[in-house]
Amino acid sequence: MSSAASPVLQNPDPGATYQAVYDALGRAYWDASDIHSKDLIYGAQQAIGDILTAINEQQLATNTALFVHLTPKIKAINLALTDIQTQINTITKNIDTAATVISAITKVLSLYPDL
Question: What is the C-alpha to C-alpha distance for residues 62 and 46, in angstroms, rounded to an integer?
Fold first, then answer.
């Protein structure tokens, strides 16, 4: 048995972290300069919304089975968020929005870095 702490135990409030990136993406959506960027952001935001719903309904921090079930979705959204993070300067020219999005995404990606 491994003595390493579970990612769930390392961060007691993943819901707040996902909510922050969800909100930041909402602002970025309105600042996005083209429809492709808006679609990219909207898709990621909707996927995060699904994660938030699951967290709120099942209290992810105390439900290992749910975390295992959400792992594929978390992996997929991490890839999309990484894509948004690298493209944020072409998505929006609003520096405040870009900084908020990058900060929120960095925090979410740090929740489960091994996924």
Answer: 24
112 closest CA partner among 84, 73, 56: 73
Q: Half-sphere exposure (CA, 13 Å, Cβ side) for 44?
A: 30
Q: Who's near 22: CB < 8 A, 6+ residues apart? A: 45, 48, 49, 52
Q: Which phi and psi angles does 92 have, rounded to 5°?
A: -140, 145
Q: Which residue has the tokens 């749910």?
A: 66
Give CA angle at 49 (14, 13), nearest 5°.
10
- Please give the angle made by the CA atoms of 102, 74 and 113, to the nearest 5 degrees: 65
| Residues 9, 61: Cα–Cα separation, whole Å | 7
Q: What is the pLDDT of residues 39-78, one digit of tens each?
A: 999 999 999 999 999 888 766 556 677 778 889 999 999 9
